[in-house]
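Exam prep: given the inputs below (a chain plus NDP), describe the expected output before reading on.
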Amino acid sequence: MSEQLEHVKCLIIGSGPAGYTAAIYAARADLKPVLYTGMLAGGQLTQTTEVENYPGYPEGILGPEMMQNFEKQASRLGTDIRFGYVSSVDFASLPHKVVVDESKTILADTVIISTGASAKWLGLESEQKYNGFGVSACAVCDGFFFRGQDVAIVGAGDTAAEEATYLAKLCRKVYMIVRRDEFRASKAMVHRVLNTPNIEVLYNTETKEILGDGQTVNAVKVINNQTNEETKLDVTGFFVAIGHHPNTEIFRGWIDMDPTGYIITKPDSSETNIEGVFACGDAQDHIYRQAITAAGSGCMAAIDAERYLAAKEHVVTA
Ligand code: NDP
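Solution:
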């Protein structure tokens, strides 16, 4: 006997501000959304501390707490929230086929992609070894643990500049490891870095290895790529801030993306190149990447999905 496939009107993939906002709107539009959280339920904000720039929280709120609130609201309004990750999709025909945890196939009339983005890593073995034990990709989340200590941060974009100045407030000294002889960050951010006395910028410098005692980090070996001179920086924390990559690999071949993997949506819309598939949040936005903009685009995706289904129903019943 063949397995009975589950058929849903609206499947939401991802549980950051974009996914949960899409769920809130889709549930209120009676689309009975099913949302799969992915491996990091709540998304990137669960790895931050204080969020001060999300409107409606005059005193600020902790990232994990905010995401719990998003989840509660989506759930209260009727979203079926499930822990699981989408392992593959087949968008060749309607309804769309989505495979969860490499085992369960769901048929979906509409799919909202809100899979977000993840931090990039240098790719060193020692970086993996000490990840969470001195190595971090989020200064705002983990800087607190290095109060009064010396740390290093790699990267030269706005994120690295912002995080370096954040760390400088907590730490005794911040080495900023910049691989070229200039920053990529905006002039204002560079100005701020260069005017922070306890930040030392090391230009033309690359990280060779993160050193430690097997438990925690105690130094970083860097090399000047002009002179080949190696230096050991005595630091207990090593922060990586070299950008993010969108979590869109499973959609490759189906959904149009830019060369770096960000999903391309039609102007003023969350529509992708595939009928009934919508994208929102950091999987689709490499410019703003804020909780509030992700939430806004999640709202757009749910409204687009609802209008798409209504138009189809109208054609069928007309
Ligand atoms: P970016 O892609 O802008 O910058 C990444 C940085 O990491 C670059 O300086 C790059 O060096 C460096 N880098 C990449 N790979 C390596 C490597 N293997 N080793 C060493 N260095 C490496 O990413 P961001 O996260 O900084 O910013 C992303 C977007 O978000 C940007 O548009 C930015 O403006 C925006 N943003 C805005 C903020 C604000 O306005 N407040 C705050 C944070 C981000 P290189 O320059 O040599 O390529």
